[in-house]
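ugh ok so i messed up the first submission bc i forgot one of the chains. this is the corrected input, ALL of the components this time, i swear. 956 residues overall. if the numbers dont match what u have on ur side tell me asap before i send this to the collaborators (the ones from the other lab, u know who)
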Amino acid sequence: MLAKLTRSTISLIWILSLCNAAIAQETSKPNIVFVLADNLGWGELGVYGGGELRGAPTPRIDQMASEGFRLQNFNVETECVPTRTALMTGRQAIRTGTYRSPGAGQPNGLVPWEVTIAELLSARGYATALYGKWHLGDREGRYPTNQGFDEWYGISGTSDVSLYRTSIGYDEKVAPPDYVLEGHKGQKTQQVKEYDIEARRGIDTEITKRTIAFMRRNVLEKKPFYAYVPLTQVHFPTLPSHEFEGKTGNGDFADSVVETDYHVGQILDAIKELGIDKDTMVIFTSDNGPEFRRPWQGTAGYWRGTYYTVLEGSLRTPFIMRWPDHVPAGRVSNEIVHASDMFTTLAHLAGSDIPHDRAIDGVDESGLLLGKKDKSNRDGFLAFVGEDLYAVKWRNWKVHFIWLEDVTHGPIKLPERYAFNLLRDPKEETDVMSSNTWIERPIFTMIDKFNTTLKQYPPVPPGSPDTYTPTYKGSLEK
Amino acid sequence: MLAKLTRSTISLIWILSLCNAAIAQETSKPNIVFVLADNLGWGELGVYGGGELRGAPTPRIDQMASEGFRLQNFNVETECVPTRTALMTGRQAIRTGTYRSPGAGQPNGLVPWEVTIAELLSARGYATALYGKWHLGDREGRYPTNQGFDEWYGISGTSDVSLYRTSIGYDEKVAPPDYVLEGHKGQKTQQVKEYDIEARRGIDTEITKRTIAFMRRNVLEKKPFYAYVPLTQVHFPTLPSHEFEGKTGNGDFADSVVETDYHVGQILDAIKELGIDKDTMVIFTSDNGPEFRRPWQGTAGYWRGTYYTVLEGSLRTPFIMRWPDHVPAGRVSNEIVHASDMFTTLAHLAGSDIPHDRAIDGVDESGLLLGKKDKSNRDGFLAFVGEDLYAVKWRNWKVHFIWLEDVTHGPIKLPERYAFNLLRDPKEETDVMSSNTWIERPIFTMIDKFNTTLKQYPPVPPGSPDTYTPTYKGSLEK
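and heres the new structure output, hopefully the right one now
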């Protein structure tokens, strides 16, 4: 109990310090709508070379790009949970104990000690909501409403489970189904209905409707809002709603992409109708590289690789930000930005301070996003698969330590590192380390720096209890 | 001698019949500038997803696309000479005996009996010139000036030979070097200088200058013109001019792409300066898939494969057409068009008739290109490597008979055909024939039709003499 109380006390101190910081800052509080697609690879959207070539036009998202800023080098972690961790906490998942998407029934979720962007924005006076897929905790104490969200509706885990009842010999006694859940801050999260195939088909429509209702409510109440909208498409099973079934004539996957574009369009339309176009930043991105499960294969388009690898097709996902009068229209950049930067950048844009008692990987990229700067504030990042460092990306170079081309062939611990120039060899086919060994200098410097922070701020062990608080020097727990 | 005279007589009859046909047609004779890059893959240009991602921005060609029409499904033959054959004659190279790029010293070139687009346009009153790489004949009788061009300057073969003198033990007695050549109709083609590394670096600058001078001359003379501009970049050795060396900081290949963009920009600027913007159609395309020789590797971007394969990365090349007031700006299409269609389409746009005494594969795509139609006039085509049918493409499907993933691994004659849906599986990774066997119907119908034409019009045997004339029923030689 002592630890738990301590944790609450820390939170209180923390929140109070944030409020003070906030008062000192400018008072602008733009609305934030953060749409996150699930397993949508680089190659799906028209503006990233897909669209019509995939039999799935995406005119609304393409238009959003032409009205906003598009990143060609936005990087994520190598799977679902780690990227969501980075987006929420600004920390790479290797630090938070959530570096793998948990198997069914395995311990999972962020410990309450982690500070999420929802907590920061909530402390800053934002209404906060999550509609969609959380995947950072599947029980009371670790739900979105335990991590800064005023309300949530969606799934705590993954869409795989919607296939349970279609599987031969499925026995719910040994593997219970998942549920669509709904929760409000201060109340227990409730089961709404089983997350079966029918629920899977319909959930993004529900997510979109609830997002729009939430925006409308807060516009009426004149409250700035943060809507985190992690859609469930195009994760397998990639089945569209019945309204979109057969829409393209090119199969379920194409129908689902088109439906996703439609949902984004609905959100954008609502923002215009509500008259908050210039007060609302909308971000569209994806959690990781393309889906590879048959028959629901996605594509990395220009790049090679799927999630679970560290090829560019895994690391780079679409990223579009629209915010009229703040983000210049039609801009495109190849500067490196990382998912963890979203935490720091959104905090900055909303006038919040970020925690200083832990390692934060995210850097503030507001200058780049708002068109005030041409350069990113980072040169690269470390790419992990699980707890293993697979590769380091630095400028237009990548050095691989563990090589994984596709998930059906095991990783190879390389006796000699591979180096690829990503401009000249985007599919990472020709190792040119021998003629470019100077690259090792900046790469090892980055690794050393990262390791120093791991020593200074030891990671949260996976499976840590809710009562977890760190004991290192510099933590609030002194 | 008899045969040769006969050939001349035929040509005369032919040309006269063309003139009559021409008179009956509308009198519009737009200028035609046809720029053909060498081994430039799908993934290089900014507008095709490359550009900045390749460290080689291509703003001029990208702008040309935004001012014109861009094809996403323009298809070529699987290597240099066959595509150039198709562009010049409207016939797939399997019919003309030029289905392989010849090795050094091997017999090569189109027989004089073939009718080229240059001949058609010349008969229609066009000034015709080729500046650049011909590759359809390396001796008197088979040079561009023997095939309808009033003049030419460039190389008869390939850029490989520019490396001869850098090769260990090179002996010019056993393998003479190639020369930059210059020719005028009715005169013998002359050697200008050896095509060595220095000439290779500079030749595209010469090509561009001569193209602009040719356009200027004909504008002054008020003569419609056809400039065929087969640039030599980015074929290996991909070495830029000294002016562009180090321009990008990303190596020779990137410098050469940027230089190519600059040259295209110079041609476009000249067209504007000459006041013939609306009277001049400019086409930019490439002869085949990406360069794969190290260290000069190109990229197919969205697709997989290089030239010599029949993967989409080999078949699809960039295609942009700009013609203000005639071709609507900013249009993009995924309709299938084939290199051979250029012959028929350009003939139509210039008011020429095409030969009727032989099999012509090209169809008229002027409706599609001018924005009067949404659909192509073809559903697919046969893809050969050498004289072997490797695959057939039909709508969004491709069926492979011989499988070749990359040129370092031999082709596999498939015991069972592979079928890929190109919308859903752009990288051709998952054979779905077993669940889509209906596809065989249209595929085999296409093959049967093609075979019928091969029987009716037997192909020109490779290595045929200049005196070649066909003897089949329906040929002019009755």
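quick check: The radius of gyration of chain A is 21 Å. that seems consistent at least. Confidence is low (pLDDT under 50) at residues 1-13, 18-26 of chain A.
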